[in-house]
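Hi R.,

Here's the chain you asked about this morning:
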Amino acid sequence: MHVAFSPMTGGGSVYYTDNEVVQRALEAHPKYGRLYKGSEVVAKKKADPAPAATKSSTKTIKVSCWEDAKDYLSETFGVSRTKLRTPKAIKETAASKGITFDGVE
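And the predicted structure, written out as tokens:
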């Protein structure tokens, strides 16, 4: 299996997976800890659907610039940074995730 790490703004890269087999394989690699390292795993509940009111509500996130908004979407939702090149694209992506950003226009 080919694993592609996504570049992050400010250097470094990231790879997200919810597949425990892939995670264990990455941790067993000889370069683990030197070339790359793991971080805390966040478990998702699969059978617990969100209430209808939550799906339609929007969450406001305070940011100081568009780069912060881009970082938030990328780190929280795993959105590729190449899809977030313009403020319009950032706003549209945020809206699709139920997010609005306060502090940028």
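Residues 1-46 form one domain.

Let me know if you need anything else.
M.
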